[in-house]
Amino acid sequence: MTANPALVAAPTVEVAEVSKWFGQKVAVSDVSCSFGPGLTGLLGPNGAGKTTLLRMLTGLILPSQGQVLVKGQKPRSNVERYREIGFVPEESAIYNTLTGEEYVMFAAQLSGVANPVQEARRAIETVGLTTDKDRAVGGFSKGMRQRAKVAAALVHDPEILVLDEPLNGTDPVQRAHLISLFRDLANQGSTVIVSSHVLQEVERMTDRVIAIVDGKLAAAGDISAIRHAMSDIPYRVLIECDSSRRLGAALLDNERVFSVTIAGNRIHVETSDLGGLGSMISGLARDLDIRLSRFAPEDESLESVFRYLVGGR
Amino acid sequence: MTAFLAITRVTIKQTLRPRRALGLGLLSVSTAVMYFLSGLGSSLGSDNDFARREAFDIFIGVTIGTFMNIVVPVVTLIIATAVLGDERRDNTMSFLALRPISRFTIGAAKMVAAFVECFVLTGVGALALGLISAPRIGSSAYVVPLVIGTAVATAAYVAIFVPLGYLLKRATLIGLTYVFIWENGIAATVPALASLSPWRIGISAMSALAPADFLFELPTFATGSLSPGAGGAAAKAIVLVMLSAASVALIVRRRDLAT
User: Fold this and answer.
1) Distance from C-alpha of A147 to C-alpha of A11, rounded to nearest angstrom
2) B14 vs A89: CB contact, 8 Å cut-off?
3) Which terminus of chain A has fewer CB atoms gathered within 10 Å of its CB, N or C?
4) pTM of the predicted model, to two decimals?
């Protein structure tokens, strides 16, 4: 393990002090992080620099400063590295006149796959597009296009999969299927990097996130660890009990508690010490003869963490 | 080789769409149609020397004044700029570039695809013009030279327009400016610049292969400082294509492939 949560112990992709600017606009600023086997979510609001970072990871665009290494080499300098990279771009990137099968087979041929027809069919089946494989990709719905792009990225069985908003336009069933696919690939040892601005999607896929805000690395690591690292932001806790007014009044006397809001039998508490509050609440309730029915942190979800990270945006 | 052929095949399928092919095909054979129509009003038979001379002059006029310096560059411009321009517009460069294939393979496959597409169209136009003119001129000896000259000019235009299509968003406009202002304006008045004009390189090849009266009748602006020579013209076109493929490879290697 490394001390810096943005870095992993056995990286396949390393980002070292990378910046990218387009004219006067700084898209990514001095980002250092790494990715290894498993699934990492790249989070950030729209325009945060996620796509630019992913494009640099694949070599599609070059860093203005710093370097990106894929298995120890710059991908642009050694095109053989592309045998190990699969990329699903955010934008359409579709050859409209090709059928689904031709599109995936084209990817297989470009990647030097030994049996392109067979491998293309396998990849198409993996993403559930078999019944539509003979239709022109130009006539596909957005969700189908996304799946065709995923199939094209998977066809050469890459070790590193870079996916930029891969779930955009997919319906809930397709989304669940793709999430399960990405998790399976990660569990089998692939390095899967998925960007999304939809927090629930990332939350369903992985615990390890790298958050980018305004082109800068805002946080990295396990979601709850990131939350705990935000010591300057009070925790929000929900308590449900049969006498909320009495318990709320008692909590206000506790030095760990900043504020108490009562709504029916629910108490919303802001505290500086989540662990301490958890340890003392049952004793306090017992002393007051109050029956507790729920004690739950309200802001350890990815959404809450993310809201804190992006601040007033 | 598989990747090379795959890129060539997909590029042709993407850029030579039916409506575009039909429109440009009609443009390409329009010169032959013009030539055919010009003979309808003639009351002289093809066995008349004066009629043959008149028909030959018209053949030179439409070959130089319409086919080689307007039809060939315009058809090639539209197809060749789309070969890489469409990849940029459709954001498919990532699909092509993030693969374990040499960058030169990408450039060369794009050149070959562009040439095949363009020459299918310009070659048909050249063949139609040559075949329609042959009975009136009284000789079919100009057909093959015209087709070869067209092939050379098409290849040279492809070499210029393919990278232009990727580098510039308004490549068609810039290409038209090149054709009409540079080639048919400046290079027409400065003979030393003829070697920078693809259609003149094509004419140089044609004039070396056609009967001598073709060269004799050519207006001076059509060849400029170029000497007739099929081998030299073909070599120039091939060198231009190779340089262009290398420049595409360099673009893919050095430039950002997305914005």
Assistant:
1) 27
2) no
3) N
4) 0.83
